[in-house]
Amino acid sequence: GAVVSQHPSWVICKSGTSVKIECRSLDFQATTMFWYRQFPKQSLMLMATSNEGSKATYEQGVEKDKFLINHASLTLSTLTVTSAHPEDSSFYICSAPAPGREEETQYFGPGTRLLVL
Amino acid sequence: SQQGEEDPQALSIQEGENATMNCSYKTSINNLQWYRQNSGRGLVHLILIRSNEREKHSGRLRVTLDTSKKSSSLLITASRAADTASYFCATVSYSSASKIIFGSGTRLSIRP
């Protein structure tokens, strides 16, 4: 079945640095991908919708200059956390709509755990 | 933004018992989906129920949807230790195709 991958699976960085997270659809194309953030024991909060060939759409309260999204191709979206701070430490998950008849469902990546020291 | 609430927040039952989780949402929906998440992992899609459906089955899963009450329930029958996970309902509205908004989740623990 269709698979979405994320890289890296975990990352530790110093405060003030930038971190890039990749989300790839492995055997299908995705013109849209979604980025979520999940804090411990909480639900997934939608951060933004990544659109291939155009600007990302951010949810209310999410800083677009802090969380840069680039949908470089039909199989790759990247999320860059700029000038990361400890409060950005979280579990970041991407998803892509399933192709064909299943398009109402989503395939989720395995997530990237970010720890900012 | 979070669409709705799930009840209970945490549930612990004996293996073999049935587990019921409830979800309430706020806006009109196109469909409602249930996902499962093992600790620290990505999500796995379990089942989708459309707004014109009232009940759906898949293996040991049974989902109901009451659009008048804006609520849904997920029943897992004959629970197994491997069912231990967090379960989330998620809604897709008519106005934002493909965009999924998650509920608060239920942490299910199955005691062997």
Topology record:
The complex is a heterodimer of chains A (117) and B (112).
Chain A: E1 4-7, E2 10-13, E3 19-25, E4 32-38, E5 44-51, E6 57-58, E7 67-73, E8 76-81, E9 90-97, E10 106-108, E11 112-116
Parallel strand pairs in A: 2-11
Antiparallel strand pairs in A: 1-3, 3-8, 4-5, 4-9, 5-6, 7-8, 9-10, 9-11
Chain B: E1 5-7, E2 10-14, E3 19-24, E4 31-37, E5 43-50, E6 55-58, E7 61-66, E8 71-76, E9 85-92, E10 100-102, E11 106-111
Parallel strand pairs in B: 2-11
Antiparallel strand pairs in B: 1-3, 3-8, 4-5, 4-9, 6-7, 7-8, 9-10, 9-11
Describe it for me?
The complex is a heterodimer of chains A (117) and B (112). In chain A, strand 5 and strand 6 form a beta hairpin. Chain A is globular, with a radius of gyration of 13 Å. Chain A is built from no helices and 11 strands. Chain A has 117 residues and is mainly beta. In chain A, the strands form 2 sheets. In chain A, strands 2, 4, 5, 6, 9, 10 and 11 form a 7-stranded mixed beta sheet that branches. In chain A, strands 1-3-8-7 form a 4-stranded antiparallel beta sheet, with no helix packed on it. Chain A has strands at residues 4-7, 10-13, 19-25, 32-38, 44-51, 57-58, 67-73, 76-81, 90-97, 106-108, 112-116. The model of chain A has no long low-confidence stretch (mean pLDDT 92). Helix content of chain A is 0%, strand content 52%. With 112 residues, chain B is mainly β. In chain B, the strands form 2 sheets. In chain B, strands 2, 4, 5, 9, 10 and 11 form a 6-stranded mixed beta sheet that branches. In chain B, strands 1-3-8-7-6 form a 5-stranded antiparallel beta sheet, with no helix packed on it. Chain B is built from no helices and 11 strands. Helices cover 0% and strands 55% of the residues of chain B. The A-B interface holds A 4, 6, 32, 34, 36, 41-46, 49, 59-60, 91, 93, 95, 97-98, 103-111, 113 and B 1-2, 30-31, 33, 35, 40-45, 48, 88, 92, 98-105, 107.
